[in-house]
From TrEMBL:
Pfam family, one: Porph_ging
Annotated InterPro entries: GLPGLI
Protein name, UniProt field: GLPGLI family protein
Database matches in NCBIfam families: GLPGLI
Taxonomy, superkingdom: Bacteria
Length: 264
């Protein structure tokens, strides 16, 4: 175990798995509907928390705030969640070197299923593009590219910050990745700042989750139909009425569009 786990005080079963040494903030964009052009992006603030032990967590700050506020409301018996902030562009929480060194852990949801995927940590095979420089966050960066997990990725990294880290699974360059995007620009992570938080842990919420593979996770995402859930609820005798934003009755919910960052 890369760091001693400690349970935080409170009603939630939250583990502090490491201490945050560096936090990089990325202004991020992603698109779910890849068929509609031009893309309709969703914006978010993604964070990469890194510990001195090599443990890191990549997550949506918006989703983290939403989850915290939702738990607080439910603990008070308030189940009206309409005033909560919108969820982030990526629902996953992605850990490197956890639950042990050389492993990764992804926590995500597929419909009603809470999933966890544990894998061996992989290193993309990068090609550094010569004569390519950019100034990002005041650091001189160089461009590298790789074909990884079904997408062609471009990453700007700086050797001024010698951390083998970056958004999501992107790593393996001689410096921190401050900007990354795929060739279709369906996912964009643009570094905005770095800080050194004092006393802030890298946390994990303990919950019942189904251990699945990436292949099974995609299958669950593709097969999810919210109308099946409504039918099951109706079978219990519950009266369910779904309304459009204009107040009219909605007979059927369209399947949510999704675009996984990992294609292979």
């Amino acid at each position: 175990m890369p760091a001693k786990e400690a349970k935080k005080k409170g009603k939630n079963d939250t583990l502090a798995v490491a201490n945050t040494t560096y936090r990089i903030t990325y202004q991020s964009k992603a698109v779910n509907d890849t068929l509609t052009k031009p893309y309709k992006y969703r914006d978010d603030e993604m964070r990469l928390d890194i510990s001195a032990d090599g443990v890191s967590k990549f997550y949506s700050y918006s989703a983290a705030v939403r989850m915290k506020l939702m738990r607080e409301k439910i603990e008070k018996g308030d189940f009206d969640l309409r005033d909560l902030p919108k969820a982030g562009i990526l629902s996953m929480e992605f850990y490197k070197n956890y639950p042990e060194k050389g492993k990764t852990l992804m926590l995500d949801v597929a419909g009603e299923a809470k999933c966890q995927i544990e894998e061996k940590m992989e290193t993309p095979e990068w090609t550094v593009l010569p004569d390519s420089t950019a100034d990002i966050m005041g650091y001189t960066c160089q461009l590298a590219t790789t074909h990884f997990k079904g997408r062609q990725w471009y990453a700007w990294y700086t050797e001024d910050i010698p951390l083998d880290e970056g958004p999501w699974k992107l790593r393996g360059l001689p410096g921190l990745i401050l900007r990354a995007y795929d060739s279709s620009r369906q996912f964009i992570f643009d570094g905005q700042g770095m800080e050194q938080p004092e006393g802030e842990p890298i946390t994990l919420i303990k919950a019942k989750r189904e251990k699945v593979s990436q292949k099974d996770f995609r299958r669950l995402k593709e097969s999810y139909d919210p109308n099946d859930v409504l039918k099951q609820m109706a079978g219990t005798g519950a009266k369910i009425v779904i309304m459009n934003s204009d107040g009219s009755k909605l007979d059927k919910i369209d399947r949510p569009k999704f675009n996984l960052i990992e294609l292979q």
